[in-house]
Amino acid sequence: MNIVVLIKQVPAVSDIQIDSQNHNLVRVGAPTMLNPVDKNAIEAAIAIKEAQGGTVTLVSMGTAMASEALREGVSMGADGGVLLSDERMAGSDTLATGKILALAIKKLAPVDLVLTGKQSADGDTGQIPPAIAEHLGFSLITYAESLTAEDGVIRASRKNHGGMETVETKLPAVCSVMETMNVPRSPSIRNKMKAKKAVFDVWRLEDIGLDPSESGSAGSATDVTELFAPEKHAVGIMIDGNTTEEAVQKLMADMAAKKLI
Fold this sequence. Notes:
Layout: E1 2-7, E2 9-11, E3 32-34, H1 36-52, E4 55-61, H2 67-76, E5 80-84, H3 94-107, E6 113-117, H4 128-136, E7 139-144, E8 146-150, E9 153-160, E10 163-170, E11 173-177, H5 189-197, E12 201-203, H6 205-208, H7 244-257
Parallel strand pairs: 1-4, 1-6, 4-5, 5-12, 6-11, 7-11
Antiparallel strand pairs: 2-3, 8-9, 9-10
């Protein structure tokens, strides 16, 4: 089974900077990390590969820094990866991004299963999985809590209106997963060495056959007029104590020091 996992490099801090001109996040120079729930998607892909055989290929769209996310995925057990990196992709909304990723997946054909995290920590829209499924003509399962694949069919369970439902569909398919699906494995020494030496193909718009007018701001259906960080609220404190009485005494002492009592 040939599995593609879409992953994303996201800001590793909550205090991010915003470009006042184009209203995009300032990613250059900011600390980054692999989108947390993408690790669950990688783990799910590797588990299916171990049971069914096949390959796990990672695909990420971003700057050269996104290659570090690919290396992290390979260190977990993925076979390799492709980086979509082109300055003309900058500013793409979910419509343009979905088109770019779908064309990359088509180039990797035949693909049986596309796995993603439920959403990225920066965009937080959850729109990419259905967009890709629509472009590829694949079936779609979202927010999966468990996932199995057998005889050309995938089965997943997910929460729905306070209960759990089990759904299944024939391959090829796109499936987004929850962080509660599994516990991502720790990289082995062997895979760490493999990831360190890994060389990733870098594809530009010409490589996937997309006209520049369909990428970036030019190919986006939305126009961001304003973007701002959420308002910060006061953070509480945790009072510890070996007994309830000790904790109460500490709380009273803290309140007295702040002249609240």
